[in-house]
């Protein structure tokens, strides 16, 4: 199971990265979410599998062995929520960008605003021979 | 001594207020600061001349051996007296020269700060203190050269001076640290006694080269001489003070200071003599190109600095003449050059031009300045009865003693140009008609030149006055006690003959000058400055290239760099760390698990293929729900519930947005780079997981949480207790992030609403 998961996580990561590198921002977003899922699974597997019981303390005060590792679960819970917050913000941002600029292509979206470049210090150097 | 330096710094800081308060008189009042310091250092003369050295230390970082430690012997005392003494007249002079300038208060501040830093530099014993002061003089010099900061030429000259001297300063730091490592101490006074050890150390040569780089850039030695004439864009008091009398001598000072430790090797003497002579001749040759008073004086300063470096190289080769010549010529040059610069500024100020071909008959209208120029000119030409004559005589004796004849001949040629320059400067005072409405400037403008030139005459007539200090200076440079009798009239000897020859040649050059000048000024002569400009341009082009490569503005390029870095670093760590393993003892999967994972993988592949938005959302949901099911199967109910919830919300959000966007349009085929990166990262992640699973598991932390959850966190759901109790701050941070994201979403949507209903 772990080995299969290792290959699945690798595959998900590859798909996520590829989608993030595509020009369309919606694809970027999907890729980002897929990569996030892959990362969560990685952390989860790092805490080892093969448990029989959830990490709950019995009323008697004992934990039934073998219980699932609670630490990665806590970490992933945080990660899921933060990932969602980020995704939600990204979705709305792209929505606004689509409305304002009419495109969600990461390559062409830059050409919408025109910022004239500041003069570089090279321009200040003498152009003819050295003056003394 | 430490107090004196602190007083100098604090006094400098009060300058702008004093200037605002006192107005025009501020120059005279502020001059009391350097004057008082000059008297303080003069009061130390008897002790130092008596052979004592004073040392004061203030702990700074004692654990590293870094201290504010200061050391006073003949050499540093001469410099301290020059800095404070000339500084007094410079401050007075500035008040007259820059009268009414809106930034005069700032000018006082920076020039006094410079004075304090320069004092710290020549008194410093600890190499870290020395370096800090060294760079402070570079910085204040930058501010002063660029004082007329609205002018492009000033800014360029200031930047050039800073880049050259501060760059050299870095080399110096490295060299000094090497010396400290070799000698086992950061105190120069302790390193001086270890000359033998230092010279035989394998690191001697690298350290020497680095120190020389620092000294040569600071003291405008060939091939770094070009910044000094350009620095003449500065107001004249700055040129007189920093760029002739004091700061440019910092490199010379350092070489003289380290002479007992580093000198004595073949490479030391030959390098210093070679570069000194080259600088002397470069300065002399380029003099012919100019008619501007300040430029002429600047090239003459370059030549004089070359002569001083040449002399330091000669020190180990002669018994005491070179050291004595150094002590005398150094003082003589500071006096006459400071005076000449101030006089040139006064002429410029009153007559409105610094072009020697435009000036004439000045003596009748500016007699006091004229007297100063004549006296200083005598010193520059090396004629009796002034100090410059004695300095040059001793220099010639030293050169005749140890240098080959052709070297002496070249030195004579270099000094002959000095004699020519003296004529060029003096003649406009007597020949021709005085310009209209030109008159003597206020006392602040002629006092300095007159006193400095007069001192040159006084010490020339009575060299005995300077002799004890000169002995102390020479002893410090030589590294052992020197006693030499300075005489104005040494009798007829070869050196006197050379002096005569120098003057005759100088007169000859004077008559050649008009034609040579016209010829040499025509074409720009390629020099090391071209290399500087090329280097700077190359640097800018490199920076632009790096910017294009890394700061392209393309999201995909940034991501590609990040992912490539990740693949490279993680891959390297796995490979080098030997973490490539196939895990043993992994549980074999059950059928439904295999099916689940296969479904997720198919979903992911589908995301690559599909073009329809809603299909993408479905596919994404497949992956998300699959992950949630994995959590559920592996006894993580909280995760599973959260994951399902979040996946649902995300899907709804995306679907809402996608309704606005009909299609993502035609998408170009994936680049091979993207495919390669994706496969590389996937592969690295798989290898990382396999390697990790092969390691033994460390359950301590998990057991701790399981055991402490109920007794200390009072909760039976261990995951929840970790979140809200053991790692409560983390969760707080998480809530903050969610809150901020919510605010962002709200702001984005609200703006739209306002735009819709204007």
Automatic annotation (TrEMBL), chain A:
A Gene Ontology cellular-component term: plasma membrane
TM spans (from-to): 6-21, 28-51, 71-95
Gene3D superfamilies (UniProt xref): 1.10.287.3510
Keyword Transmembrane helix: yes
Membrane topology designation: Multi-pass membrane protein
InterPro entries: CPA3_antiporter_subunitC (IPR050601), NUOK/Mnh_C1-like (IPR039428)
Location relative to the cell: Cell membrane
Superkingdom field: Bacteria
Entry keywords, A to Z: Cell membrane, Membrane, Transmembrane, Transmembrane helix
Predominant cellular place of this UniProt entry's protein: membrane
Family the UniProt entry places it in: Belongs to the CPA3 antiporters (TC 2.A.63) subunit C family.
Protein name: Na(+)/H(+) antiporter subunit C1
Organism listed in the record: Meiothermus taiwanensis
From TrEMBL, chain B:
All residue ranges annotated as the NADH-Ubiquinone oxidoreductase (complex I) chain 5 N-terminal domain in the record: 63-108
Keyword Transmembrane in annotation: yes
Tree of life domain: Bacteria
Record field: transmembrane: 24-42, 77-95, 107-124, 130-149, 161-183, 203-228, 240-256, 268-289, 296-315, 321-347, 368-391, 403-426, 446-466, 494-513, 558-582, 594-610, 617-634, 640-661, 673-694, 731-749
Gene3D superfamilies reported in the protein's UniProt record: NADH-ubiquinone/plastoquinone oxidoreductase chain 6, subunit NuoJ
Pfam families in alphabetical order: MbhD, MbhE, Proton_antipo_M, Proton_antipo_N
Membrane protein topology class: Multi-pass membrane protein
InterPro entries in the record: CPA3_Na-H_Antiporter_A, MrpA_C/MbhD, MrpA_C/MbhE, ND/Mrp_TM, Nuo/plastoQ_OxRdtase_6_NuoJ, Proton_antipo_N
Keywords: Antiport, Cell membrane, Ion transport, Membrane, Transmembrane, Transmembrane helix, Transport
Major localization class: membrane
Keyword Transport (UniProt): yes
Domain MrpA C-terminal/MbhD positions: 598-661
Subcellular compartments: Cell membrane; Membrane
Domain NADH:quinone oxidoreductase/Mrp antiporter transmembrane: 124-413
Domain MrpA C-terminal/MbhE: 671-753
Protein name: NADH/Ubiquinone/plastoquinone (Complex I)
């Amino acid at each position: 199971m772990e080995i299969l998961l290792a290959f699945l996580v690798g595959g998900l990561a590859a798909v996520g990265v590829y989608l993030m590198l595509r020009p369309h921002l919606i694809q970027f977003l999907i890729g980002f979410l897929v990569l996030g899922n892959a990362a969560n699974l990685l952390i989860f597997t790092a805490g080892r599998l093969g448990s029989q019981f959830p990490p709950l303390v019995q009323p008697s005060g004992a934990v039934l062995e073998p219980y699932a590792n609670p630490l990665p679960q806590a970490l992933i819970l945080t990660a899921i929520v933060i990932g969602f917050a980020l995704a939600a913000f990204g979705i709305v941002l792209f929505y606004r960008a689509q409305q304002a600029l009419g495109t969600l292509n990461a390559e062409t979206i830059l050409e919408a605003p025109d910022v004239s470049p500041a003069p570089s210090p090279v321009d200040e150097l003498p152009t003819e021979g050295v003056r003394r | 001594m430490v107090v004196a330096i602190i007083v100098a710094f604090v006094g400098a800081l009060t300058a702008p207020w004093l200037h605002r308060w006192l107005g025009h008189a501020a120059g005279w009042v502020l001059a009391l600061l350097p004057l008082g310091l000059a008297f303080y250092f003069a009061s130390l003369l008897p002790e130092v001349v008596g052979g004592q050295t004073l040392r004061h230390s203030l702990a700074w970082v004692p654990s590293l051996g870094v201290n504010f430690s200061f050391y006073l012997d003949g050499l540093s005392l001469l410099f301290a007296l020059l800095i404070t003494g000339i500084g007094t007249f410079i401050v007075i002079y500035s008040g007259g020269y820059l009268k009414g300038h809106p930034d005069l208060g700032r000018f006082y501040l920076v020039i006094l700060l410079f004075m304090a830093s320069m004092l710290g530099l020549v008194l410093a014993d600890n190499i870290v203190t020395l370096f800090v002061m060294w760079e402070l003089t570079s910085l204040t010099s930058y501010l002063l050269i660029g004082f007329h900061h609205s002018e492009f030429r000033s800014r360029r000259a200031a930047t050039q001076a800073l880049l050259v001297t501060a760059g050299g300063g870095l080399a110096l730091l490295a060299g000094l640290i090497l010396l400290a490592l070799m000698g086992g101490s950061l105190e120069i006074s302790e390193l001086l006694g270890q000359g033998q050890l230092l010279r035989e150390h394998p690191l001697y040569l690298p350290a020497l080269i680095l120190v020389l780089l620092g000294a040569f850039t600071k003291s405008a030695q060939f091939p770094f001489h070009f910044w000094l004439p350009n620095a003449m864009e500065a107001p004249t008091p700055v040129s007189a003070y920093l760029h002739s009398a004091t700061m440019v001598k910092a490199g010379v000072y350092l070489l003289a200071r380290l002479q007992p430790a580093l000198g004595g090797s073949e490479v030391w003497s030959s390098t210093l003599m070679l570069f000194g002579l080259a600088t002397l001749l470069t300065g002399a040759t380029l003099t012919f190109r100019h008619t501007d008073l300040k430029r002429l004086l600047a090239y003459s300063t370059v030549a004089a600095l070359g002569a001083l470096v040449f002399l330091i190289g000669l020190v180990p080769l002669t018994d005491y003449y070179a050291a004595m010549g150094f002590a005398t010529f150094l003082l003589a040059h500071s006096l006459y050059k400071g005076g000449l610069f101030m006089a040139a500024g006064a002429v410029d100020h009153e007559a409105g031009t610094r072009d020697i071909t435009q000036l004439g008959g000045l003596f009748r209208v500016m007699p006091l300045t004229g007297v100063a120029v004549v006296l200083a000119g005598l010193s520059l030409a090396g004629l009796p009865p002034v100090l410059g004559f004695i300095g040059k005589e001793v220099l010639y004796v030293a050169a005749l003693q140890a240098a080959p004849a052709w070297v002496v001949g070249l030195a004579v040629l270099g000094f002959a140009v000095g004699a020519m320059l003296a004529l060029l400067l003096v003649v406009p005072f007597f020949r021709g008609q005085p310009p209209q409405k030109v008159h003597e400037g206020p006392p602040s403008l002629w006092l300095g030149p007159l006193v400095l030139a007069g001192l040159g005459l006084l010490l020339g007539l009575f060299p005995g006055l300077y002799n004890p200090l000169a002995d102390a200076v020479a002893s410090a440079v030589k590294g052992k006690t020197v006693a030499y009798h300075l005489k104005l009239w040494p009798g007829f000897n070869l050196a006197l003959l050379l002096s005569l020859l120098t003057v005759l040649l100088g007169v000859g050059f004077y008559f050649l000058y008009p034609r040579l000048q016209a010829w040499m000024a025509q074409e720009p002569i390629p020099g090391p400055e071209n290399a500087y400009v090329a280097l700077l341009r190359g640097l800018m082009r490199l920076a632009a290239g790096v910017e294009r490569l890394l700061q392209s503005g393309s999201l995909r390029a940034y991501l590609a760099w990040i992912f490539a870095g990740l693949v490279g670093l993680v891959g390297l760590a796995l490979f080098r760390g030997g973490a490539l393993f196939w895990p043993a003892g992994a549980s074999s999967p059950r059928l439904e698990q295999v099916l689940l994972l296969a479904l997720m993988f198919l979903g992911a592949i589908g995301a690559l293929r599909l073009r329809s938005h809603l299909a993408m959302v479905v596919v994404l949901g497949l992956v998300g729900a699959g992950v949630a099911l994995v959590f559920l199967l592996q006894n993580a109910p909280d995760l599973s519930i959260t994951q399902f919830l979040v996946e649902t919300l995300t899907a709804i959000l995306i679907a809402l947005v996608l309704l606005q966007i009909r299609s993502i349009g035609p998408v170009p085929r994936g680049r091979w780079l993207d495919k390669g990166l994706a496969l590389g990262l996937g592969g690295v992640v798989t290898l990382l997981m396999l390697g990790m699973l092969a390691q033994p598991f460390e359950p301590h932390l998990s057991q701790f949480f399981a055991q402490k959850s109920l007794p200390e966190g009072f909760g039976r759901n261990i995951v929840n207790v970790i979140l809200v109790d053991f790692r409560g701050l983390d969760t707080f941070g998480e809530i903050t992030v969610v809150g901020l994201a919510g605010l962002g979403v709200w702001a984005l949507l609200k703006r739209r609403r306002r735009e819709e209903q204007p």
